[in-house]
Amino acid sequence: MNGLRPFCAAVDWGTTNLRVWLLSDDGKVLDERRGAEGLLSITDRGFGRVLEAHLNALGAPGNLPVVICGMAGARTGWLEAPYVETPARLDALADRAVRVEDAKREIFILPGICQRKKDAPDVMRGEETQLLGASLDGVGDGLFCLPGTHSKWVNVEGGAVTRFSTFMTGELFELLRSRSVLAQFASASHGPAESAPAFAEAVRNVLDDSANAFGRLFSIRAAALLENEGELATARLSGLLIGAEIAAATRGRSNSEIRLVASGSLAGAYAAALEVAGLSKTLFDPETLAVRGLFKSARMLWPDKSAKADVA
Amino acid sequence: MNGLRPFCAAVDWGTTNLRVWLLSDDGKVLDERRGAEGLLSITDRGFGRVLEAHLNALGAPGNLPVVICGMAGARTGWLEAPYVETPARLDALADRAVRVEDAKREIFILPGICQRKKDAPDVMRGEETQLLGASLDGVGDGLFCLPGTHSKWVNVEGGAVTRFSTFMTGELFELLRSRSVLAQFASASHGPAESAPAFAEAVRNVLDDSANAFGRLFSIRAAALLENEGELATARLSGLLIGAEIAAATRGRSNSEIRLVASGSLAGAYAAALEVAGLSKTLFDPETLAVRGLFKSARMLWPDKSAKADVA
After folding, report:
1. Rounded Cα–Cα distance for residues B185 and B221 (Å)
2. What is the pLDDT of residues B20-29, one digit of tens each?
């Protein structure tokens, strides 16, 4: 804990994992832990026990308050934090946080955002907190791309999420790579897919003909059979899916600068694909933004609290 | 065996099953069997033993010749029957059949067709024999839709396959319905999906905005969460995928009549979707066409053979 008394604990609780940070009263990370106890692996409403175990391992004081974003607030999570509808001001989300009543400490779960449009219903939980984190840098407005299992493309205008759309790109990639007729060729063992010329070519092809994105999937298999190009299958599949996502998400926006919230190989793949599409981008680290958004929310939940006052 | 001596045995050997027919010398089905020993379930090159077991159960004479179409001719099948390249005359495919040399009877495997186009490589094995079957009715030319795990859309001109494209619609449907984040809502238990208004609406939506087909997948989940419309998920998923296929396959063809080769629920779903798209169709039974195509091929392989001459 670096010797400093934490101001709060901040938790990003997702579907497959969680991250816990202890934050100082100026938002610095004092200590952190990661766990595999995502929403899907928790049974018997064991959220409280999982959280306390992580806080205990971090040596957090028993009365340290906690702010949580992500799937813990889903209907099937710890306690439902009902969605805030678009347009949703990011700096007002903390007003709609729900408190876990039966906990021994103060625990608040932040809401997600929903879009109740008949032709484009959509939901997010967790990404809104990253967007709030971005807004602290004065870069809040714009078109954000948050790639992942379910990629989000989000318009932020005047500090509010006005519309967004989700693409199941990461999930489709995993299903097709591992369980489809493409699995014979598309293994994970071919190195960084986005560096292959076949990746850029696949992005270009689908950008040129985005109405046929589904129809291009089987051609990956056909090329493997006919041209012995099986080793290109992973790069092609990744390029096809990411390219289709970018084509659909950026229609009519050729001049937009994309705020890409990604790290690691995802950041590399999306940066390469955006370059093929001729779109400029600024890169943000998702974890940094999540911590900032959680800290900002904590400051709104406990405006008068001082870490020093809590020192025993 | 109806008391008639068969002219040949005909086999459609697919990835997950096979069908065996005994045919008279005028192409009538005298008897038939189905088996689950598709390409994927046969190990140790056991194709010959599987075939003989089925022929034996049908009481087929030991010298009865056999003609086979489908995946048995794949590189990973019984014996590779190399693809014939487009444009591929349907009535010349039998010339490129390969003979299984180590069999005790005459066994020929028909080739598939490939399209070696750099921007749209594609392959088929089995569907070409159904198309040959259709050509016997004088309805050979036109745009054929053969839905399934891997749907084929095929242009036949002057009795030749000139171009075609494959859509992984059936496979995507199964993967998304059973293994994706949509599986929570999309179960198979909601009755015939194509009869639901939600099916037609999903077809219409994707036809209106086909460049965003991938982007519509997650909205099925969002609508289930926001509007409690989980019971519509299967119909919507089916409509979205079939609609995206039709949109891509019929671009620039608003006046085409589609020759739909399908039966059962697939026929119902595609007929309903084509109607939403304002496209007219003629329906053909896939099995009837396969039998006709196999018989036509057998007649080309053994032009002088008479069933009667074989009577002991």
Report:
1. 8
2. 999 999 999 9
